[in-house]
Amino acid sequence: MKLTFSLVFLHILMISLWASAFPVIQIGLESFSPQHLAFVRLSIASLVLLVIAIATHMRLPDIKDIPFLLALGFLGFTVYHTALNIGEKTVSAGIASLLVSTTPIFSSLLAIFFSGGVRKKKMGWICSKLCRCCTFNLQQREFCTLS
């Protein structure tokens, strides 16, 4: 892939917008409840995506896929954003950002648990335990100690 100015600019813009989301959520929570803030954020995003879908002539999903898409949208967006907003009322923006960044760890653990197929090696379990220990202690603003 050729590294162009626009590609670098878009990456910097994306990272900046993602990083600023957590402090902006705390600012928004001064005026809105967690549920209303999630509604406002998702409404703005939905309108932007609607404009993009119309402009690009995106086709509608198959009717059989709609219940699945609605369930994923509810869990992946509505529940996530509402829970994040509620959580940011009790922890700082930096801690919230670190906790959210652990999502792939927990997703992997849940996938292993529910698939029942993959066995972790000893080092994998040690790393997972260390990540969980650090994540939970971040909430309490303590250092992670192993005993």
UniProtKB/TrEMBL annotation:
Subcellular location(s) of the protein: Endomembrane system
Keyword Transmembrane: yes
EamA domain residues: 8-116
One Pfam family of this chain: EamA
Main subcellular localisation: membrane
Keyword vocabulary terms for this entry: Membrane, Transmembrane, Transmembrane helix
Membrane spanning residue stretches: 37-56, 68-87, 93-114
Membrane topology: Multi-pass membrane protein
SUPFAM superfamilies, alphabetized: Multidrug resistance efflux transporter EmrE
Gene Ontology cellular component annotations, sorted alphabetically: membrane
Record family assignment: Belongs to the EamA transporter family.
The protein's name in its UniProt record: Transporter (Drug/metabolite exporter family)
